[in-house]
Amino acid sequence: MGPVLPSEADRLPFRDPALPLHKRIDDLLQRLTLDERIGLLHQYAAPIERLGVAPFRTGTEALHGVSWLGEATVFPQAVGLGATWDEDLVHAVATAVSVEMRAFHRHRTPATGSGTHSLQAWAPVVNLLRDPRWGRNEEGYSEDPLHTGRLATAYCRGLAGDHPDYLRAAPVLKHFLAYNNEDDRCVTSSGVRPRVLHEYDLAAFRPAVADGSATGAMAAYNLVNGRPCHVSPLIETELRRWALATGHELFVVSDAEAPSNLVDPEHYFDDHPAGHAAALKAGIDSFTDQNEDSATVTGRLREAVDRGLIDEVDIDRAARRQLQLRFRLGEFDPDLDPYAHIGPEVVDSPEHRALARRAATESVVLLKNDRLLPLAPRDTPRVAVIGPLADLLCEDWYSGTLPYGVTVAAGLRAALAEHGGDVVCVEGADRIELRSLTNGQPLCGTSFDVVDWGGGALTLRDAGTGRYLSLKDDDTLVADQERIKNWFVRETFALEPGGEPETVLLRNRHTGRYAVVDPADGRVTMTADGPETAERWRRELVRDGFAEARAAAEQADTAVVVLGNHPLINGRETEDRADTALPEGQEALLRTVFAVRPQTALVVMSSYPYAVDWADEHLPAVVWTSHGGQETGHALAAVLLGDAEPAGRLPQTWYRGDDPLPEPLDYDIIKAGWTYQYHRAAPLYPFGHGLSYTDLAHSDLRLSHSSIAQDGEAAITVTVTNTGARPGSELVQLYVRALDARYEAPRQRLADFRKIRLEPGESRELSFRLPAERLAHWDVGTGAFTVDPGDYEITVARSAEHPVLTAPLTVTGPAPAPRPLLQRRTLAVDFDDHTDIEIVDATRADGDAVTTAHPDRPATLLFRGVDLTGAAQVEAEIAREDAGSGQARLELRAGDRLLVALDIPVTGDRYAWATTAAEFAAPLDGVHDLTLTLHGAFRLTAFTFAPSD
Q: Which distant-in-sequence residues (6+ apart) come within 8 Å of 50 by Cβ?
């Protein structure tokens, strides 16, 4: 196709805003060559200069502020926004973020690549916070799908704006699907049974997609049921199906380098053209791969076309989705774009600073209070603020660059100064010299302040400059880093015993290598592979951090100890935590302070929950905040001094330290007992927990109907009264519970919530609408959501473990019939219960199967209450790669009675499916609990009972 003159390009139909959107896209698409269309499928899409089409890139990180582009307003981490439980506030934050995105898009030149900063926002994250040890816990809103879905929808709406035709920014939901572990994340598989899939993981994604507020999704790094998420059929069968009613298609992007991961390290496909083709056909529209090198990706896709793995229809489908998004972002209608006027002055504007303070304040959670808080400035004029986070604000990987930062100490100092009070701030860190035994010289010629961040990770900060010791590319050490924020963190070290008293070895945690000293010139390098050849260092104490903290606490009226995590150390993207314990050094510091100043409040500033059991037992007050952004200190000061109410509530369970949590890779929340829904041990602080400075009473719980049909609904009202002397916020939580369920029902399940603010003496009646679908569970027998008739309990609560009012509700309707199995193909994965099974892929493209988690011991599947009447034979669909360690067989039992044992033949490949069948001794009759027992290494995808031939 030849070039089009600029004046002609302006008159082409795709430039005409009067035409319907689909006709404009059709016109532009048909003008593109195949190579130009393929070129659109990389993250960095080249310009099409002959048509005047600009370059385009996907993705600006915008989780809690505009990230990686320079100074921008930094709001609380997403888990902190989740703690607000405030959809209007979350919407306002997202609006501010998208406004700043527009400013960067129009007024800031990208540091890399051509064109402009993307208006596609890679946010929010809707992965559920199942396991608090997840390294990316800070990125999610909640462990609950309803809570997460509602806040994600609010964030998406704020990003997108409210214009009927044009988007302010294009929200992308991350990361599809069942992604909640970092260790080996690219090769681990999340085993998700159908009930967990539909009731839990998919439930968080659906609301924002179904109402059209999300414009796209990003596939996750992990595998689900043995299949990489980037080739998951759920992209089409679930995500895009939900979006049909909105009139717009979802634009699905890959995560960084994930398409290449399909070949290495996942080894799911033999070569990259095959992997890329499979991802495209599964629904990936844009390949975030090879950084700015689009030629490699487009070359792989072109080869896939030439090999017949994909065709032009596949290319056009993805290109059309990108073009639709670009039209909606106003790219082709600059004169009509309602957001084109946004100027650079909006970045970190006074309005956004005020919003950041409000968000940080609303996210603070009061976990415990025995009348210590709020602090009265007249009674506590001198406050000691102690700890590694007392005078430090951290950026996480998805933070913007802080334009300024108000630390806890600074915020309290400013607030107390208005009352004539004062703050003394100490870190409580030991200052040490590491003196070489080879030449007697101190490391880097200085002393260092040492902070314990847990997991054996220490930072060493130059006592003179305050900068972090860092490993350089030439293996030398230089204390030159003002802030820790790099993908590869080179600023954490371990001090290991050196074999003699007061001697240590210095190991860098990034490389695992130890320091050595050249005896000739004294040069220090981190090059020793093991302790045998490492330098020994004498650890000399220059300043006792605990003694300093103790002295500060003794001289103060109250101590505020600020502990927690650094978001890029010991629990971050690519690294899960091993446990939930506070770092040993931080726990010891807290106990030291409390021993001399019982009037001590613990402030936990963290990306995730900690097991602060000792603090809860001994201290009078415990407070939590996420890393709250630039206004953290002002926010905490306002709450600690009572100028603001503690309005936050926990968005996830804080487990006790002695609670043996399930395995990180056990994604079956029902069987494993994850989250408030299924965990049976009493937590330290439950989901939804948070105290107030005032007294609030709930009364007069009423249901419009005591019974409803399976498709009916009930109106619920409850009155909340502030009976205290202060204004206060209350989060009214509505839970439902099935009584005597035929399935393993949640202990409680959040059905609705409302956050309100009440003046002293004020009462307010709240109304909730409870449709019967909120009582539904995924019925594996029918493959659909079902509301069982029976008795339910409706609870108004202050947390998942603190009910205040309950009311019964009955659902009427015919009792569920026994599950029929005769002449029906029953999927093995549609079990009711199991032991020792692993869910795997039936083929690379579609379907699930089960296999034994441990081939040396049997696995079982339980199907409850199945009708076997008339069954005389059974056929099982199996695959067995090789003979392996011996015989493989499948046993079927009705109750305790063995029906048949099937020997499993070798089929030659895990995807080579065959059937094996057997007749029963006599036809079966009645309703039974059916158990299938798998012995040996093979896969089972389905089975069918049949009558006699």
A: 1, 2, 3, 4, 9
Task: Report the b/e string of 725-738 with b at 16+ CB within 10 A.
Answer: eebbbbbbbbbbbb
**Are the beta carbons of 224 and 190 closer than 8 angstroms?**
yes
What sign for the dihedral angle of Cα 525, 529, 535, 537?
A: positive
Whether 831 and 193 have beta carbons less than 8 Å apart is answered as yes
CA–chain centroid gap for 513, Å, is 32
Residue 218 sits at φ, ψ, to 5 deg, of -115, 130
Cis link prior to 334 (omega < 30° from 0)?
no
- Collect all residues with Cβ–Cβ distance below 8 Å to 165 and sequence separation of at least 6: 328
Q: Which residues contact 520 (CB under 8 A, 6 or more apart)?
A: none
**721-741 confidence digits (pLDDT tens):** 999 999 999 999 999 999 999
**Mode of pairing for the β-strands spanning 802-812 and 790-799:** antiparallel
Nearest to 832, CA basis, from 929, 746, 740, 945? 929
Instruction: Give pTM, 2 decimals.
Output: 0.97
Question: Distances from the Cα of 738 to the Cαs of 398, 683, 746, 775, in angstroms?
Answer: 40, 22, 8, 8
| pLDDT tens, residue by residue, 330-353 | 999 999 999 999 999 999 999 999
Q: What is d(CA 282, CA 615) in angstroms, rounded to the nearest whole number?
A: 50
Kindly state the tokens that stand for 898: 């063995």
- Show which residues are catalytic: 255
Nearest-Å Rg of the Cα atoms of the chain is: 30
Paired sense of beta strands 493-497 and 503-508, if any: antiparallel
**450 three-state secondary structure:** strand
Q: Hey, what are 120's tokens? A: 């596609």
Phi first, then psi: give them for residue 13, nearest 5 degrees: -55, -35
Residues 6+ apart with CB under 8 A from 205: 126, 149, 173, 176, 177, 217, 238, 239
- Bridge partners of 934, per DSSP, are 859, 890
